[in-house]
Design a protein that fits this description.
Length: 271
């Protein structure tokens, strides 16, 4: 059974959400009502032609078999808004698409129908079926002329009280500490970039943010997407660095280091 078939067949208990890691910052979420939300899926290998960087593994789900109800891109970089994969998604499904304005313009340019594309900016929320998505701050400074992402976002997903923070691509930013301030609505799960290169937090910064937010579950991401890629001196591609720093800070949550395609059951701490 393929991963797409496994996700389609999964029966999610009431009060829970299932999440599967696609590699990079890509995730699929499925709710008890059956809603499938894809975030930043990278289906193709198009970055190889642009930057000469091959992906390290085959996409665990092909664009042809993916059936998202909603597909969200946190910014327009090709491994988050796949110019080869997403037009296929649009043709083979009835998916709705959501992202910041720079993503909206590209999706429309690729022929995705206007009534299936919605924009969202930092501070705005978007309700979709049984999920509310709020765009939160991200500071993704890749340092490459022509690849600026001034409107990059992170995501706060509220699945009926189960709250998941997905960082997208971002450097450490003090604005993100504010995610911990709403004590009546704590964040249950943090999914954090740790690669430390290309405008992203390193593993130690991600550990600090996880500790500050106080989530019960911490999931590192964006550390094994590229083949033969060191990322330079700033790269932190070993998720155990996050684990070690998080524990030294006093972090008491569970850190889940996932394999590509692995599923994870999520439950709210207050439900």
């Amino acid at each position: 059974m393929s991963l797409a078939q496994t996700i389609d067949a999964a029966q999610v208990p009431t009060g829970q959400v299932m999440a599967w890691w696609l590699g990079g910052t890509g995730f699929v979420f499925k709710t008890a009502a059956g809603t499938q939300i894809y975030i930043d899926p990278y289906f193709s290998n198009c970055v190889a032609a642009i930057f000469g960087v091959e992906r390290a593994f085959a996409a665990p789900i092909s664009a042809e078999e993916a059936r998202p109800d909603l597909l969200i891109a946190t910014h327009w970089h090709e491994d988050h808004l796949d110019p080869e994969g997403l037009p296929i998604i649009a043709r083979h499904s009835q998916a709705q698409f959501l992202g910041p304005p720079s993503c909206v313009s590209r999706l429309l340019g690729w022929g995705v129908p206007r009534d299936r594309v919605a924009g969202v900016r930092v501070g705005e929320s978007h309700a979709f079926r049984d999920v509310t998505i709020t765009a939160v701050a991200a500071r993704h400074m890749a340092g490459l002329p022509g690849w600026e992402t001034d409107d990059a976002i992170g995501l706060l997903l509220d699945f009926g009280g189960l709250r998941v923070y997905h960082s997208g691509d971002t450097e450490y930013d003090l604005r993100l500490r504010a995610l911990a301030y709403d004590k009546d609505h704590p964040i249950d799960v943090c999914m954090l970039v740790i690669n430390g290169a290309g405008g992203n937090m390193n593993a130690h910064e991600a550990a600090l943010l996880a500790w500050q937010i106080g989530a019960r579950t911490v999931v590192p991401m964006h550390h094994i997407l590229w083949k033969d890629f060191t990322g330079g001196e700033q790269a932190t591609l070993d998720p155990q660095l996050l684990v070690e720093t998080y524990r030294r800070l006093g972090g008491g949550g569970e850190v889940r280091v996932l394999e590509v395609g692995e599923g994870l059951g999520l439950r709210s701490t207050v439900l």
